[in-house]
Amino acid sequence: MDIKDSNGNVLKEGDSVQVIKDLKVKGSSVTLKRGTVIKNIRLGEGDEAVEGNSDKVKGLRLKPEFLKKV
Asked: Which of 7, 14, 19, 34 has its CA 20 to 30 A from that of 53?
């Protein structure tokens, strides 16, 4: 099964993605701002299929509809 970003581009392991909307991180007081780049993503399964690390938060699990491929 292919995982696609908000624009319909297919995501692959190791891609870099950009957040398209301000997102609150569960279990933390940090908010990921629009435009934040997450490098070297990993693809998982389920609703939150994209895993990666940002400068502020490690071990993020994100829904692909809030991301765009860079």
From this structure: 7
pTM, full prediction:
0.88
DSSP one-letter string for 44-59: -SSSS-EEEE-SS-SS
Residue 14 CB contacts under 8 Å (≥ 6 apart), including other chains: 40, 41
- Domains located in the chain, CATH noted: 17-69 (2.30.30.40)
What is the residue whose two structure tokens read 């693809």?
A: 43
Contact assessment for residue 3 and residue 11, using Cβ atoms and an 8 Å cutoff: yes
